[in-house]
Structure formats: C-alpha cells, structure tokens
Amino acid sequence: MQRSCTWFGICVMLSIFGSGIFVGRSYAESVSPDEARLLRDEVQEMFYHAFNGYMQHAFPRDELRPLSCDGEDSLGGYALTLVDSLDTLALLGDKERFAASVEWIGANLRFDINKTVSVFETNIRVLGGLLSAHLLASDYATGMRVPSYDNQLLHLAEDLAYRMLPAFDTPTGIPFGSVNLLYGVDENESKITSTAGGGTLTLEFGILSRLTNNPVFEQVTKNAVRGLWAYRSKLNLVGAHINVFTGEWTQKDAGIGTSIDSFYEYLLKAFLLFGDEEYLFMFQEAYRAAMRYLFTDPWYVEVNMDSAAIVWPLFNSLQAFWPGLQMATRS
Which residues does UniProt call coiled coil (predicted)? Predict the structure, then answer.
C-alpha cells in the first residue's frame, strides 16, 4: 500500500503541476541563477508572512481577516487554512511545521459538525489537502514522512467523503452544491449547481477509492461527470448552471471561465491520473467545441451553448488556467 501511495502521490503532483512545466521555458532561461534564488526567497517570504499571520491571529478558525486581524470560520470551521497549507509546507521542505500540522490535524480535526458546506470547496481544499498530506506523510520516498503518522488523515478524508455522499443522491447524479456534514442535504437546498461544482470532484474521490479500496467514491463522481456530459448541447458545449433534478440548464452561457473552468481541467487530469479513456473522449470532444466556438483570437468569449451566439465578449480571470491545460494536451 505504501508503494502505491507513492505512485499516486507522484501522479497527482504531475497532473496538477506538470502542465506548467514548459510554459515558462523561455522566461526561465532568461533568469539568472541569482535572480531565480531571489524570486524563490521572495515567494517563500510571502508564504510565511501569510501562514504565520494566520497561525498567530486566526488559528484554528478557517481564515484570517486581514483588516481586523482575527479569524473567521468561512467554510466549515475546521482549520481550513492549515489544511490548505500542508502541501505548500511540504513543497518548501518545512519538515518541522509540516509534521506539527499533520499531528495537530490528526488529533483534533473532526467532521461530525452541524455545518452546511460547499461540496466543491470542501472537495478541492479539505479532502484534497488531507489526501495529498497523507501521501506525503506516509511515505519515506517523499522526504516528508512523519514518524508518528498512522493514516489519521486518510481516515479523516474517508469520513469527510462519506458525509458528502448524500449530495450525490439526485436523479441526474449531479450533486447538490452544498451538504450538511451532520444531517445531509437540507430539504430547502437549491437544486441549481454550477458545472464546475458538479464536475470537479473526480481526482480526489478517485484517489480516495484507490487508497481505501472502496469504489463508491469514484463511482458517484464519475456518474456526476456523465450526468453533465449527457446534457451537453448538440455543439458539445455545456452551460454554466444546471438543475440537478431535471437536467435543465438554468444558465446557458458556455465558456472556459467562471462556473465551468475546472470541468475541462478535471476531464483531462482524470484521464492522465487514472488512464480512463472515457474521460479522454469527453475532454477531446469538449475541447474541440471550445476551440471552435469560444476562441475569438486573441482570447475566449462566452456563447449560448445551443446557438454559439456571443453573450459575453470579455476575458475573465478564471480563464487564466487554459494555457496550462493546453500544454498538458501538447496542443
């Protein structure tokens, strides 16, 4: 199991960071070693300014409020910033803080709380943070192994994922946007969710299935992606928001940015990570449609998913990931 954890950890990191390896090649070659060290040190200083500020003024709340200099529980009340920072501590080689954080989380974090949380945010930040830290802390090959570690973060991740499963109990398989960690989905919960919210779950849940030998986590997230894909338009475009009970698109704006962006990202990365060609097929079809209907040189617009008529001609910041994704496709 430990060896398989190593390979999954490597795959996750490659799939997440690998797409950016070649993007800055010409720029990197123009930076001297001294300049590179200065930039590295500046990034490290910025991280520790933020991390130490959080630990001093906000921990164990979720986030630091920079003006009042106190903490708030903005997501679920489970030391979100600390969980979110684990992999960065590891990347910086900070074994002491990484080990201390892993030990604190393993001993103190619990999810049997009456909190309604975002399925999307909880997945990418908390579940993903716990899984990546588990892989790093449990394997000598990572250089970050924590001697006292005994799979506590994996057990927490599994418990959290189980508490999120009620969100997937919909006719389409596309999950609700929010779920209560103690009571499941509230009867008044909105049936409208974003495409990104329903389609950005496969990596974390798929890894969890492999680490626990429990296929249910991967199955529900794959069904969610299939559900979204089933309601695509004849142009192979998806909209921004959908009714998880009826499959009706409540916002038919198709784009690569807000509310849709990581749907594309996770299709490709799920194929790269798991080798499942169904994800590759969906990505290729979706990518071709995006390049045909959304690309208006030199940027991307938003169009009606049925007619391809432009509905929003301006660039938005959440489109910035796209070149990195294209590098991963070598296109």
Answer: none
Place of tokens 């300049």: 35
What residues contact residue 4 under an 8 Å CB cut-off, 6+ apart? 210
Distance of alpha carbon 75 from alpha carbon 117, whole angstroms: 6
Q: Which of 304, 265, 301, 308 is nearest to 283 (CA)?
A: 265
Of 258, 254, 261, residue with least CA distance to 322 = 261
- Exposure of 2 in the CB half-sphere (CA atoms within 13 A): 10
- Report how far residue 194's alpha carbon sits from residue 313's, in angstroms, rounded to the nearest whole number: 20
Q: What type of residue sits at position 206? A: G
The closest alpha carbon to 5, from 200, 154, 222, belongs to 154
CB 250 within 8 A of CB 242: yes
Q: What is the DSSP letter of 139?
A: -
| 4 residue type, one letter | S
CB-CB contact of 204 with 124 (8 Å):
yes
Q: What is the pLDDT of residues 211-234, one digit of tens each?
A: 999 999 999 999 999 999 999 999
Which amino acid, one-letter code, is at 140?
Y
Give, to the nearest 10 degrees, the angle between helix 202-212 and helix 152-164. Answer: 120
CA distance 315 to 256: 10
Whether residue 171 contacts residue 245, with contact meaning beta carbons closer than 8 Å, is answered with yes
pLDDT tens, residue by residue, 158-216:
999 999 999 999 999 999 999 999 999 999 999 999 999 999 999 999 999 999 999 99
Residues recorded for the chain: 331
Distance CA 216, CA 264 (A): 23
